[in-house]
Structures are given as structure tokens and as C-alpha cells.
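[job 4417] fold queue: 2 targets
>>> target A
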Amino acid sequence: MSPEKVVIFEDEFLLANDLKRQISPYNYEVTAMFRKAEDGLQYLAGIQNKEDLPAIILMDISLAGKMNGIEAAEIITHLYDIALVFLTGMSQVEIFEKAFKTKPYAFLIKPFDLKQALISIRLASYLKSLENKVLKNQEAFGDRFFEQIGGGIQVQNQAEAASRIKLSDESIH
């Protein structure tokens, strides 16, 4: 099984590099790391094949640059089908409320240990795969539902047409 691709948005290089080193043996491939949201968004926009997009983004809320992690997460969740995990040392409720609106799959509160990181990353991956299965099943159900409705409407139209023909035949006789 090929490793899951991960991109890290973290302004602390040592923390990002340490996280990369720790999760790599567990079938996660960190394909890129960014201190600034703008750079990471530009990287994602440059990816041509959907298969080359990361499966997971680990996003610090506080980043270098003009854009914070919550703003970047809003853009990412709008444009891409990627599981997002927030990394944060902040514990203010207001920050979490803003972050929740971007629909993250998990949170990692700094300082975190390897077990906590792996559980959060795996949870995000699992929840994203479940969501994709549900959406796929919804689409399949919707297609079958509309096919059945369409067939039912066609039968109804044919029955109405036959009824009109029968009525017009009876009025002739």
C-alpha cells in the first residue's frame, strides 16, 4: 500500500520537520512543508493531477505571512477534497469556534506526542474515507432514484395518453 500524502503548514520549521520525521515510518509521506499559507496554497493550485493532491493537510492556526491557518483552511476545504487537521497551541474557545467552521477532521493541541499525532491523522483519514463513501452512495442512490422517477413519469404519461385515446374512442361511438 502506498503511503498517504501529507502536507504540513507550520511556521515552526523544527516542529514541522520533527513531525515529518516521526510520522514517515507509519505510512505517511510528507510531500511539502510551508511556513506561509500563501506558499502552500500556491503549491496546491499548481498540482495538475487530482491523484497528486495530499490526502491530509496538517494546518497550524498561526502561520508566518499575511494569512492565518483558518483562512487558508477555508480556501482549501472549498477547493479541494482533502482531510484537514489543525495543529495549535492556542486554547481560546473563540479560536476553536472559528476553526470549527472550516470543518476540520481533527485537532492536535501542542505540545503533542507521536501517539496523539498518529491517532488524529488516522482519524482524519478514516473520517474522510467514510465521507467519500457516503457521498458516492448518495450519488448512486440519487441516480437510481431519478431513473425510477423518470420511468414512473414515462409510465404515467403513457397511461394518461392511453386514457385520452380510450375516452376519445368512447365519445366517437
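>>> target B
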Amino acid sequence: MLYRLEGIVIRAMDYGETNKIITLCTQTHGKIGVLVRGAKKVKSRHASLTEPFTYGVFSFFRGGSGLGTLNDGEIYESNHKLREDLMLAAYGAYACELIDRGLHDEDTGNFWFEQLLAFLNGMREGKDPEVMMRLFEMKMLQAAGYGPELDICSASQRPVEGDAFISPRLGGVLSVPFRAADPYAVHVSARALSLLRVFAKLDLRRLGNVDVKPETKLELKNVMEALMREHVGTNFKSKRFLDQLENYGFDK
């Protein structure tokens, strides 16, 4: 059967001497693997379709639920500028790996597709990639059913105001007097908690240019890392590489 689908390349791997296999996050058919014959050849007309972050239309033959074989394609946005910037490429790789882990074959992929597309577009437009990454992580947690409760204290069941703690184990916020409910809860200032609440309600497609102080960014990172570690795991090669770049000051 011939498919013609909008998709974003989230992973590419060599297959044999001249071929590649790409994994697409598609708008309508979830995650799909496609064989691109001859993609490694110097004069291949399909080589550009196999680059990470490439967004376009992919036409391929596929029998049943197995691997497709590319017939043709049209690039809407190559995102080559993201690949040429080490930090942006690292953020993009992490976002793609989150999608690759979270989205199963044949899942309905529209939400994941739209969020990833908005993330890549935002980076290309110059929006703060670190802030977008925190929002992207929140959207992935929510899509997986692990979105934290950020308004009501997990221990007292009362509204939380001011500084507080986030408990990944309890799945939500703790007011300061109830911090003992989880000694490993992560402290969060009122400002950072307010931003987390915005992230919980905001779609990436609606995010504008925001100015977040470095200390608040660090708080957001610590909180989201704790939530991701509890509910998703930490074995992300792209995340480790991104952390190394940030530790060496490449994001400055």
C-alpha cells in the first residue's frame, strides 16, 4: 500500500553499505520506520530526506505493519540551521528521543507531532530552547499520564501558595509545612511554581518569547529532571550529552 504522510525525522541509522532507515513521527499514523535505499550514495536524491529534524511529506510503500520503503518525498523545512548549531542540535536530539521513547508504533501521533513541530519551529525562530525544553518535558509527562498536580498540596489537599516543594513520588506539590511527607521533594520558589503551572496549561504552539532568570531556569530544570527521573527514567543518551554541553558552558 502506498502512504503519503507528513512527518518529522526523529531518528536515522545506517543499513547496509548504501541504505538508511529513518523513524518518522507522523501527524496521523504515529511512529513509522522507513527504509531509504541508496541514501548514503553521494548523488542520492533522497539523502536530504534522512537528516534529523527534517519535516516534510514522505511517500512510501508498506505492507501490513512492517517497515516501509521510501518512494519519494518533499521537504517543507530541513531545519539545517538546528543541526549546524551544537546546542540546538542537542536540544532537538533530546526532544526527538523523548518522542521515540514515548510514542509507540501506530499510536495516534497528532499531539506528539504538533508539539515536536512547534519545538523545532520555536528554536529556529530564536525562542529560548531551555525554556521550551522544560515545557516540552511537561507536555510529554502529561501525554504519558504523569502530569503533576501543581495547585493542591498532595498531603493536606489544600491550595498551595508561595514557595513549596515538588514531590515526584507523590505526583504533585507539597506546601512547606508538609515537606516531611516526602524528604526527597524538590524545593521550588513561588516564581518557578507559577511558571510550572503555566507550562501545565500551555500548548507549545502558543509559547511566545519569555525572559526567565537563570536561577529560575535552574529551578525548573531540577524539578523537571526529578519528575522525568521518577516517571520516565534517565537512560537518554541525548540528555547526557546536553548536560555535558551545559556543564561546559556551551549554552552561554
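[job 4417] complete. Note on B: The mean pLDDT is 91.
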